[in-house]
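Homework help thread (please don't just give me the answer)

Our assignment gives two proteins as sequence + structure token strings and asks us to describe the second one. The first is just a warm-up. Here they are:
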Amino acid sequence: MSLERLAEIVNFSKSHLARVETADSMPPPELPALLDAEFGTDGIFSELYQLARNESSPDQLARRMELEAQASAIAEYTCQVVPGLLQTADFTRALYKMHYPRHTDDAIEEAVNRRMSRQAVFRRDNPPEYSAILDEAVLHRGFGGPAVMRAQLACLIELMRTSMGVVQVLPFAYGGHPLVGGSLALFTLADSTQVAWEESSDNGTLMEDLERVVARRRSYDLLRSCALSPSESVAFIRSVMETLPEDYPPLTYPTPMGRPVHQR
């Protein structure tokens, strides 16, 4: 059966079905039952869908990067770290050195360059609409020392001055919420398809089925309505910059022998 004919039967676009066929897109939750009904496969597609929706694969990260590069709109929430699209090179470098202390300087620089190259999306002829909600912890979680953090926070303010995007701060006073403990990215493609990427400290999950994406979108919209306004967020970020010290004091860790160990 041709994709054109199948598109007429299940009432999905040919382009969407083509992405499903080549495993570039997660099947919508209602599609498996329609395929079972058309091909008489007695629930096989529905069973396969349950396996596919729970799949976690390194290939998902590559797909996520592809979606980010193509998206017409990007919305992000982070609870601990500045989103990669908004990071300065120095912040990224300090972050990678913390995560990968055994990597060589060359390996760190290669990783930094890859992350910085993602920011080319803002230099496209048709850059995406961008919005981010940052938990207050993001502003206080220092990487690289006060000078690096001061420059990073200034970069966030500059982003809003140039109308490249909107950044809002979610203060601690808001309390708990469904997205706490991880990060979320929502991508809207040119054909209005919506995809979500949810990430913990060591794992990411790409969601392309409408039901889960809509649930994440609702959570994001709730946070956005309760976050500080853009102008209030700028003032909040400035206040954090003003409290940054010239340098962080050395950290002291107790040892089993009772002698302190000092570390910067």
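The one we have to describe:
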Amino acid sequence: MITINPLSKIICLSIILAFGFLLIVLSCAVYNNWRPLSVIGIFLVAPIPNAVFGKLDNNDFMNESTSSVPDFGKFLTGFLVLSGLALPLMLYHSLLITRNAMLMSMGGGFLVYLTIITFGTFFHEEDDEF
């Protein structure tokens, strides 16, 4: 298995994140309409419920009761991601932005969210039982 230097991971992720922000800002600046900029906020807030509610789960293998707290965090994260993808579609459908601005905003938002999730998985450390 190939190991990649953590600094290289951070540099690659920052380049992808910057490209995602660039797409969103260009979707606003090129068409002189700043409504798609709200996608940035939605995609930056989207991973927070999953991270917070995932840490609140205190189940171990000896406890047979199941907790719905992490599932609620996943639901909120999914809701926010879907809202971030649907917002440019809604703005385009109501003729507030152009088709190209919608595509650029959705692509940039997807890259921003994908970068945040990839960063979390690259640097997530497993807790040892022993």
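TA reply:
I won't write it for you, but here's a hint about the kind of observation we're looking for: The first helix runs from residue 6 to 29.
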